[in-house]
Amino acid sequence: MNRFILSILASLACASTAQATPILWNLNDVQFKDGGVATGWFTFDASTNDITDFSIRVSGGDTGTFAPLTYSTSNSSAYKALWKGYQDYVFFLKGSTRLISFATSVALTDAGNPTDLVNAPFSAECYNCAPYRTYASPGRLIAAAVPEPASWALFIVGFGLVGAAVRRHRSIVIRYA
Q: Is the pLDDT of residue 115 over 60?
């Protein structure tokens, strides 16, 4: 009976369809013309076009105008926009006109393919876009590897089957005369 239940569970895990999950995108090699840098990450769900979580740190460069700052879900809001043919990912500091924007020439997908950032007309960090600083090297977005739910289900079922096999294994006792 137990084998029957285990085979049913394994079949269900293998037959389940993989659901796309939001992807965590890491900023890589983003540098401003004034010597500043942007580092961090954001989570984007391509099926809903929502930026659900983020932490983007800007530092260096013209710190008199652009003091070091971390844009995060606790102090900022974010959205995705299509502007002049570019996909813009915009992060606004709440209660301020300060924002940072990253642009790509293609839309981000839940497949997580690395994507080059581009120097589009609205790619910059700015205060209501005056003053602003643009990118010397816009960098790349690189997806963090995250297994899909179906993969997790297979891992769990596999570990369960291995555990059941180990538990049922009878140890052989060697006796010396």
A: yes
